[in-house]
Amino acid sequence: MEHFDLVIIGSGSGNSLIDERFDGLRIAMVERGVYGGTCLNVGCIPTKMFVLPADYAVSPAAAGRIGVDLQLEGVDFDAIRDRIFGRIDPISSGGKQWREKSDNVTVFTGTGHFVERDVMEIAVQGEAEPVRISGDRFVLAAGSRATLLDVPGVNDPEVAARVHTSDSIMRLPALPASMIILGGGYIASEFAHVFSAYGTRVTMINRSERLLRREDDEISERFTKIISERVGLKLNQQVTGVNPVDGGVEVVTKDPNGIEYGYEAEVVLVALGRVPNADLLQPEAAGIEVDSNGYVVVDEHQRTSQPHIWALGDVCSPSQLKHVANHEMRVVQANLLHEITGTGDGLVSSDHRFVPHAIFTDPQIASVGRTEQELRAAGTPYLATVQAYGDVAYGWAMEDTEHCVKLLSDPEAGQLLGAHIIGPQASTLIQPLVQAMSFGLGIREMARGQYWIHPALTEVVENALLGLVEQADTAR
Ligand SMILES: Cc1cc2nc3c(=O)[nH]c(=O)nc-3n(C[C@H](O)[C@H](O)[C@H](O)COP(=O)(O)OP(=O)(O)OC[C@H]3O[C@@H](n4cnc5c(N)ncnc54)[C@H](O)[C@@H]3O)c2cc1C
Ligand SMILES: NC(=O)c1ccc[n+]([C@@H]2O[C@H](COP(=O)([O-])OP(=O)(O)OC[C@H]3O[C@@H](n4cnc5c(N)ncnc54)[C@H](O)[C@@H]3O)[C@@H](O)[C@H]2O)c1
Question: Where is the FAD/NAD(P)-binding domain (predicted)?
Answer without folding.
Answer: 4-324
